[in-house]
Prior knowledge:
single chain; alpha/beta; TIM Barrel; 8-stranded parallel beta sheet; two-stranded antiparallel sheet; 14 helices; 14 strands; 33% helix
Amino acid sequence: MRDMVEIGLGKVARRAYHLDDVSLVPSRRTRDVKDVSTVWQLDAYRFDIPCVAHPSDASMSPATAIELGRLGGLGVLNAEGLWCRYEDPTEILAQLSSCGEDEDLSAATRLLQKVYSEPIRPELITERVKQIRDGGVRVAVRVSPRHTLSLAPVILDAGIDILVIQGTTVSAEHVSTNEEPLNLKEFIADLDLPVIVGGCTSYQTALHLMRTGAAGVIVGVGADRWTTFDNVLGIRLPMATAIADAAAARRDYLDETGGRYVHLIADGGVETSGEIALALACGADAVMLGQPLANAAEAPAGGAWWHSAANHPELPRGWYCPPAEGPRPPLRQVLYGPSDDPYGGINLFGGLRQAMAKCGYSDLKEFQKVELLLRPE
């Protein structure tokens, strides 16, 4: 039964929950952590950990996409990012990594808007894809719905493995009187590679995106403490409920199609190993990580962090996050430890394995069945 609350005469709202509102319940058995598998498979592609990189220039360059791929995750390069606008954006990234030192974060936003005003160069997309492919890992590239029709031919001809069509929120039925809208179902039907689409925020949207033929659906809008979607757009997405709703849509779509499974990727509010475990327990198959990867020593922006929406030329929807003080751990340590962080920000997938072992589950699909409790208010 839905938990509906009357917020005033003639208006009700459904109660929803964030990841920190729920907790895992261990079962009657525990497992040796060495017997736990975090393997995740999307279409024909197998990954050692359920980790998809958020396609931010703060965390993803061709080099870091390669490194994440070698460590068992999936790096995603932004076809509309700095690496596809500048021949060598390292000086710009270095400038961005230090522009928060004077604590003028509005100036940082203006700088983001300025550097992203440079036009996208299709030849650089081809060059960056080749660089990642030469690194021997799976190649995933992100493009926004707005630029999909114009950039997709270049991206596909470059030879990618996975296409990610990602915006703040994406629907299967975009209405426009000013331009020809992207028909996701027709577009995906013409491709012979897996497509991930999103983000989505509800059961109905998730179900519609699944019906486009997507192999994966991103759940969430990438919101973390540095996004301002709630301030700017009034959108504040409780991730536990959003993932559970999308998982219900996946179950119904599985019945509708006679067995076609669509993977859910949780994007938002996931920064610690415990939050990764909770997202998967709510029904996600993988998580999209942003700031945790930006904190790695290999990250191209030196520990600074920003979402792609933070550089919007007219309506930025995110703060620039300056680098934290002190040394930054290598990416391998962020993912696999060892950790000296008692709050779960390092050894993210070692922490996930421990959570699965403590709850008695041996693989990710089994772990989605774990019991959850609401934390007391």
